[in-house]
Specification:
Shape: globular
Number of strands: 32
Strand order of the largest sheet: 1-32-31-30
Number of helices: 5
Largest sheet: 4 strands, antiparallel
Structural class: mainly beta
Strand content: 35-45%
């Protein structure tokens, strides 16, 4: 009798728990399949395929004038006077900087001299023979351990300084003596711009700050929306027509009245929720021709914005956080994949695309990216993360030369007094 009962119970379980995918035991598996099939990557990166375009096109550059600008409130340097042979003629040495993942540092040029800093924040003025004229440090022992990174601007006989540990101060350019020194609540993360008796800088909290040159007292400040992340790319600002225009870490472009600090217009270019998920958003410096402001980002967007209204003139699909250069009616930029673009300034049409990294093997190329470029009389000079400088004939886009500058990171090229300068860790290299 007991055996019969056991057989009946076993028969019952076999009928209700069949081991096939239609039985109840597989319900959880069905739910798992269903959930997996409905999963979507909301923040999946957009990949665009880039190819060379219009390679036989020769650009007419005969109407482009060169200049000797090194300071521009509009970041509009254009084609600069330089026809050198890239022969190394000097090296300005300083103690190596620490904790560098990129060299976005800019030396200050005063007459024939160079001003830069070392790993402890000491400011050094070199003469044209690479000799030190003076060296000054205005940091405490504890502050020196923070390895401040400095930005400079020259005003009359003084140098204004802001740094990555929240200090800003003024020193005499002739002897390095301190005029005044103050502290901000947060570190700074932009270049410095000046206008009349004021100077402007942006801190890590996405706040634009206006200070008086005379004593460093604050005139006004304008906070903008913050992001959850800290960018390793510097924010950008330009000044024109009594306005300050600046970018922040979340892609907002804001126009501000230079006297009152009130917003004239603001253009959000990205979704804040997406940026807080991706953590890698980077924007180029702002550049203006006086009518429009141009910039690009690493989300495949190159913008032209009307200065007066903040409305979008055009957007082109270019993936770059490298500062563009305006020459006449053309804009040049280099994508993060190493392609040189020639763009019509007024309409945004891409008229030529050239692969400047074509000499790299595919496996190695994946780890190399451009740093920045400058344009001389006829050629474009591009540096990359491998420490190389690539020289390109701008008219026909032929690669003329590759120059090994460093085995590590190197800055974008700077052209001054018909010479070309590159910052690498420990020295500034000068080429004729």
């Amino acid at each position: 009798m007991n055996r019969l009962i056991i057989l009946l119970i076993a028969f019952f379980f076999i009928n209700n728990c069949s081991f096939n995918e239609n039985s109840r035991i597989w319900k959880d598996k069905d739910k798992e399949k269903l959930s997996k099939s409905n999963v979507k990557k909301i923040f999946e990166a957009k990949n665009s395929v880039v190819k060379e375009f219009n390679q036989i096109l020769n650009l007419d550059l005969s109407g482009i004038n060169t200049n000797n600008k090194f300071i521009s409130n509009q970041n509009d340097y254009g084609s600069q006077s330089y026809m050198g042979e890239l022969k190394k003629i000097g090296s300005y040495k300083f103690s190596k900087l620490e904790e560098l993942n990129q060299i976005n540092l800019k030396p200050l040029f005063i007459e024939n001299d160079i001003v830069f800093f070392d790993k402890k924040g000491s400011i050094i003025r070199f003469n044209e023979n690479q000799k030190i004229l003076w060296k000054k440090n205005y940091y405490t022992k504890a502050e020196k351990k923070l390895r401040p990174k400095l930005d400079f601007i020259f005003h009359e006989e003084n140098i204004l300084v802001s740094d990555s540990i929240s200090k800003y101060y003024s020193i005499n350019a002739n002897n390095g003596e301190l005029n005044w020194s103050k502290n901000n609540t947060y570190p700074f993360n932009s270049e410095i711009k000046k206008y009349k008796n004021k100077f402007f800088v942006i801190d890590y909290k996405n706040t634009l700050r206006c200070y008086k040159i005379e004593d460093g007292s604050e005139c006004w400040n304008l906070p903008t929306e913050e992001s959850f992340t800290i960018s390793d790319a510097k924010y950008s600002l330009i000044i024109l027509n009594d306005m300050v225009l600046f970018s922040n870490s979340i892609g907002d472009i804001t126009s501000v009245d230079i006297e009152s600090g009130l917003i004239i217009w603001q253009l959000p270019t990205q979704s804040t929720s997406i940026l807080n998920e991706t953590y890698d958003f980077k924007t180029s410096k702002l550049v203006s021709d006086g009518n429009s402001v141009f910039f690009s980002n690493n989300k495949n967007e190159f913008y032209s914005i009307d200065i007066k209204t903040g409305t979008t003139n055009w957007i082109s699909e270019i993936n770059s956080n490298i500062t563009p250069v305006i020459t006449g009616n053309l804009i040049f930029t280099v994508s993060n994949e190493g392609y040189l673009y020639a763009i019509e300034k007024n309409k945004g049409n891409i008229i030529r695309v050239t692969d400047l990294f074509k000499f790299y093997k595919p496996k190695k190329r994946k780890n190399i990216y451009p740093i920045g470029f400058a344009i001389g009389d006829k050629n474009l000079y591009l540096t990359n993360s491998e420490g190389k400088m690539i020289v390109v004939d701008l008219q026909n886009s032929n690669i003329l030369k590759t120059e090994k500058v460093s085995s590590n990171l190197v800055s974008k090229p700077f052209i001054f007094n018909n010479n070309l300068f590159l910052v690498r860790n420990g020295s500034i290299i000068q080429y004729n």
